[in-house]
Design a protein that fits this description.
three-stranded antiparallel sheet, alpha+beta, 3 domains, elongated, Arc Repressor Mutant, subunit A
Length: about 500
C-alpha cells in the first residue's frame, strides 16, 4: 500500500474477477518427452535428459496432448488458429530445471471462447474465455516439515507434464460466480475425458485475478493475483477475502498495488509473495527447438467428431426427452460416472425413471456404507439391470433388493448374480393369492384393536395392517398382491 488519500465508501463497489485455470492433460507421457505422468512415484524417478533440461537434449511435441488441448478448446467454443508456435517463458525457480518454461505467448492456438454457467439461484451467465494455450508444468519443492533439519529438496517428476491454461475474461462479479465457473469448467473437462480434475493431486489448479471498481461502467482498477488454489471452496473463499481486503485499503485512503499472493485454506488468510511480474519480465521469445504447428480444417473436423455429449446437452436431454425431474437429471449430470452408468442401464432396457430412482435413492446409502462409488462397486451395468428386472417381474421386492440382494452382490464383487443370491437366500416373493390370503387372515385375527379402529372409521390403520402383513411374510410377499387383498377383506368386514 502506498501514499494515503481521503477515505472512500466502498460498500457498493463492484468486484471484477478473472480466472486462470491450469488443467493437466490426461496423457500417459509428458509434453515433450516420453516420461510417465503417473502421480505418486518416488521423487525424481520419472525424469529424463529432456525434462531435466540437460545440454544436448531436444523436445518432441506429444501429439495426443495437442489433440486433447484442441478438444477442450473446441468444447469451450474457441476460435482455433491454423498456425501456432511455441515460446520460451524465462524465469528462475528451483523447480524449473531449464530456467524457462515452454509455453505460448503471442500466438496461442485458441482464443475468444465462452462457457455458460448456472448460479445457485438458477441465473444463467455467459463467461468469456480469452485464450487457451498449452504449456509444460514445473516440478515441485519438497520441504522438511519435521522441524529438525529444515532442509528442502526438488522433485522433478511433474516437470514437463502437459497443461492447458484456460484464461477467462474478467466477466465474473462475485465469489459464487467464480466457484460456479470453476465447477462448470471442471465438469466439461471431465466429460471430454481430457483431465481427471483431481485437485488434491494438482491436476486442476486456479489463479484468480481480482480488483474492485466504484461502478459497473468505471474503468478497471489495479488487480491482485491469488496463485495455485486447489479446491472450489478455496477459490470462492480466497476471492471473498481478497475483495474484503481491497475494500478496506480503498476505504482507508490507500492504493492497491499489483501483487502476486497466496491463500491459506486452513486459516483463510492471504499473504503477498511478490510484486506482480509483467509479460516483459519473462523475456518471451520463440522456442527454437520446436517447429510451429499448422492445422487443417480436416484436422479440426476430426477432433470435433470426438466430442461427445457435454453436461448441458445431457441435462437438457434427460429433462426433455427422458422426462426426468430437474433434481434427478441434475444429480446424474453432476456425477458423470453415475450418468454413464445410467446410460448403460437404459441400453439394457431399464426404464429411465426406474434406473434414476435406483441409482440416486437406493444405491447411494449402501455404497457409502461400504466406501464405494458406482464406478468402483464392481457390478457391471448388465448385472445391475438383471437385478432391476427381477424387481420389475415381481420375483423379489424392491426392499429386499436394496437391503439384501444388492449388498450381497457388492460383497461378491460382482461375481454372483442377483438371481443366484435370491435363490440362495430364499428371497423370492410369494405371489400366490391363496397363500397370501391365508396369511392376511392370520394377521387380522391377531390385530383385533387395529381392525376395531378401522371398523370405527379410522382408515389410516390400513397402513399399519399392511406393514404387519409384510412383516409376517418377512418381506418376501409381493406388496402389489398383498395390498389389494387386504383392502378388499377390510372393506367386506366394514360392510358387515
Amino acid at each position: 500500500m502506498s501514499s494515503m488519500a481521503a477515505p472512500v465508501d466502498t460498500r457498493t463497489w463492484q468486484p471484477v474477477i478473472g480466472l486462470e485455470v491450469h488443467a493437466q492433460l490426461k496423457t500417459d507421457t509428458k509434453l515433450f518427452c516420453g516420461c510417465e505422468t503417473s502421480f505418486g512415484a518416488p521423487a525424481n524417478t520419472k525424469v529424463c535428459p529432456v525434462c531435466l533440461g540437460l545440454p544436448g537434449s531436444l523436445p518432441v511435441m506429444n501429439g495426443k496432448a495437442f489433440r486433447f488441448a484442441l478438444k477442450a478448446a473446441l468444447a469451450l467454443n474457441c476460435t482455433i488458429a491454423k498456425f501456432t508456435k511455441w515460446d520460451r517463458k524465462n524465469y528462475y525457480y528451483p523447480d524449473l530445471p531449464k530456467n524457462y518454461q515452454i509455453s505460448q505467448y503471442d500466438l496461442p492456438f485458441a482464443t475468444k471462447g465462452w462457457l455458460d454457467i448456472t448460479l445457485p439461484d438458477g441465473q444463467a451467465r455467459r463467461i468469456g474465455i480469452t485464450r487457451v494455450h498449452l504449456e509444460e508444468d514445473a516440478g515441485k519443492l519438497l520441504h522438511d516439515e519435521s522441524g529438525a533439519g529444515g532442509e528442502s529438496g526438488v522433485d522433478l517428476n511433474r516437470a514437463g507434464t502437459p497443461l492447458i491454461e484456460i484464461v477467462s475474461e474478467p466477466d465474473l462479479r462475485t465469489p459464487a460466480e467464480a466457484r460456479a465457473y470453476m465447477e462448470a469448467l471442471a465438469k466439461v473437462l471431465l466429460y471430454l475425458d481430457v483431465c481427471d480434475c483431481n485437485m488434491q493431486e494438482g491436476s486442476l489448479r486456479c489463479d484468480a485475478n481480482v480488483s474492485i471498481r466504484p461502478t459497473a461502467d468505471a474503468p478497471f482498477k489495479t488487480r491482485r493475483e491469488i496463485k495455485n488454489m486447489n479446491s472450489f471452496r478455496f477459490v470462492e473463499a480466497a476471492v471473498e477475502t481478497e475483495i474484503g481486503e481491497q475494500k478496506e485499503i480503498y476505504a482507508n485512503g490507500g492504493t492497491v498495488l499489483q501483487q502476486t499472493r497466496l491463500f491459506n485454506g486452513q486459516t483463510g488468510e492471504i499473504r503477498t509473495m511478490r510484486n506482480k511480474e509483467e509479460a516483459s519480465d519473462y523475456r518471451y521469445f520463440p522456442e527454437p527447438d520446436l517447429p510451429p504447428v499448422t492445422l487443417t480444417e480436416a484436422d479440426l473436423d476430426g477432433v470435433r467428431g470426438e466430442i461427445t455429449e457435454l453436461p448441458e446437452e445431457r441435462l437438457k436431454r434427460y429433462m426433455e426427452v427422458l422426462k426426468l425431474s430437474e433434481k434427478d437429471a441434475g444429480v446424474l449430470v453432476e456425477f458423470k460416472e453415475m450418468g454413464d452408468y445410467f446410460e448403460q442401464l437404459l441400453a439394457e432396457g431399464i426404464a429411465a425413471k426406474t434406473a434414476a430412482n435406483w441409482l440416486i435413492s437406493d444405491c447411494q446409502g449402501v455404497l457409502k456404507e461400504k466406501y464405494l462409488t458406482i464406478a468402483t462397486c464392481g457390478i457391471a451395468p448388465k448385472a445391475m439391470a438383471d437385478l432391476l428386472k427381477l424387481v420389475e417381474a415381481g420375483t423379489v421386492n424392491r426392499a429386499s433388493a436394496k437391503s439384501t440382494v444388492f449388498p450381497a452382490m457388492l460383497d461378491a464383487k460382482g461375481e454372483k448374480s442377483a438371481e443366484a443370491i435370491v435363490k440362495e437366500q430364499g428371497l423370492a416373493q410369494v405371489s400366490d393369492s391363496g397363500e397370501i390370503e391365508k396369511k392376511i387372515d392370520e394377521v387380522l385375527a391377531k390385530s383385533e384393536k387395529l381392525v376395531k379402529d378401522y371398523l370405527s372409521g379410522k382408515d389410516a390403520v390400513v397402513n399399519a395392517l399392511f406393514g404387519a402383513c409384510m412383516k409376517a411374510f418377512q418381506g418376501k410377499a409381493n406388496p402389489a398382491v398383498i395390498r389389494p387383498l387386504l383392502e378388499q377383506k377390510l372393506k367386506k368386514l366394514r360392510e358387515g
